[in-house]
Amino acid sequence: MLHMTHNYLLGLIALVVSFCFTFYVPIGYFWFKARQQRNQNK
């Protein structure tokens, strides 16, 4: 039982981490590109 709960916990953590990566990576990328363009416009 403990082993299955541990595997479930690891799967849940992996799911949350992958969700955070797919959600935050494009936001950070677009923010970085917008900041670069703003710096070029100055």
How would you portray this structure in words?
The chain crosses the membrane at residues 12-32. This is Preprotein translocase subunit YajC. Keywords: Membrane, Transmembrane, Transmembrane helix. The protein is mostly helical and 42 residues long. The protein has one domain (1-42). 95% of the residues lie in helices and 0% in strands. The protein is built from one helix and no strands. The longest helix has 40 residues, at 2-41. The protein is rod-shaped and about 60 Å long. The chain starts with a helix and ends with a helix. The relative contact order is 0.08.
Descriptive keywords:
42 residues, 0% strand, 95% helix, mainly alpha, 1 helix
Please report which band the strand proportion falls in: under 5%, 5-15%, 15-25%, 25-35%, 35-45% or over 45%: under 5%
Distance between the termini: 61 Å
**What is the general shape?**
rod-shaped
Radius of gyration: 18 Å
Fraction of residues in helix:
over 70%
Number of helices: 1
Largest sheet: none
SSE run:
H
Segments where pLDDT lies below 50 for 5+ residues? none
Protein name: Preprotein translocase subunit YajC
Keywords: Membrane, Transmembrane, Transmembrane helix
